[in-house]
Here is the input.
Amino acid sequence: MNFAVGLKPLLAEARSMESLEKQLICPICLEMFTKPVVILPCQHNLCRKCANDVFQASNPLWQSRGSSAVPSGGRFRCPSCRHEVVLDRHGVYGLQRNLLVENIIDIYKQESARPLHAKAEQHLMCEEHEDERINIYCLRCEAPTCSLCKVFGAHKDCEVAPLPAVYQRQKVGALGGGCRRGWGAAHPTGPHTHPIPSQSELSDGIAMLVAGNDRIQAIITQMEEICHTIEENGRRQKQHLGLRFDSLYSILEERKKELLQSIAREQEEKVQHVRGLIRQYGDHLEASSKLVESAIQAMEEPQMAVYLQHSKELLKKIMDMSKVSMSSRPEPGYENMDHFSINVDYVAEMLRTIEFQTEPLGEDDGDGPGDGSEAAGEEERLDSLEAPEAVEDVGPRQKPASSPHGQH
Here is the structure.
């Protein structure tokens, strides 16, 4: 027997009660109206206390009814439609009570307090005969049905029993076979009848499901712990991998610094040598220029005695100056720094081939996914990624050739 039609009135009633409850909600406190309920001129309702709170907030200087002075009326806006409500000297107490809404609230609370199973019994109707209540139990089909179904409906050839009797026998824990034997004399059983499940059988089934649920929950808990362990192990391995690569970065930076210092030293030596030659040539040029000026002035000397007196010495200086050798200069290619070039292609290729080690751990390396000894083993494996000796020897480390300083 299908209970869909029988449950439809229950669902419809539940939806009606929910819809009714929404209509009985105060827009201020968002709870069901509390008596007394006042009706505003715009036909919207409020709890008197909520209406008084809104009124007092809009009219802070308004005096209460107990004041000896005669207060003037106040005004506020309806929280539902923003309509302006003008009150007399009685304030909120001058508003009319909505007795209809109060009565509806009382009825709603009474209906809500009724037991759910009582409502279900009152509204559980037959899906084929909507005006007939379900009051008998078909033993062959194992389904509740109505009297009309037994008389000339789908269950007219079936064996039936009163619904309360079946319910009571099931409640007291009688076995299904016993129930069948109790009705067997008056109601002969057919070849397709089955025992009615007793309450004890249902209890056993519930206990079995609960036990199964406990096992499933234990499995879920175990898998959640596995997920947590996986996340923790992954976080630790990420940290270890980051430390290993940071170590490689440090080695590369240190080696880079050393090579740059080698280039800087030879660069400084060569520059200082060339600048020394520049100063030497500059001094010679300055002395030669001064000697030229002195010779020009001597040639312009009008007095013969003075000219003859200094010409011999001046000529000697000129001869000595011309004999000074200025052959010291940088050799061709002295400025070249190409011998500091390095080849890191094979090192880059080696870095690109860094992979995780796939060798299985030993028996003493840890028993669980989060074991500390496994972490130690992983650290030892990752230590091999550093390879400080290999990184130290990247590329040909050519020492700079001795600087070919020219002869002075």
Residues 202 and 208 are 10 Å apart (CA to CA). The chain has a mean pLDDT of 75. The beta strands are 37-39, 45-47, 75-77, 84-86, 136-138, 143-145, 160-162. The first strand starts at residue 37 and ends at 39.
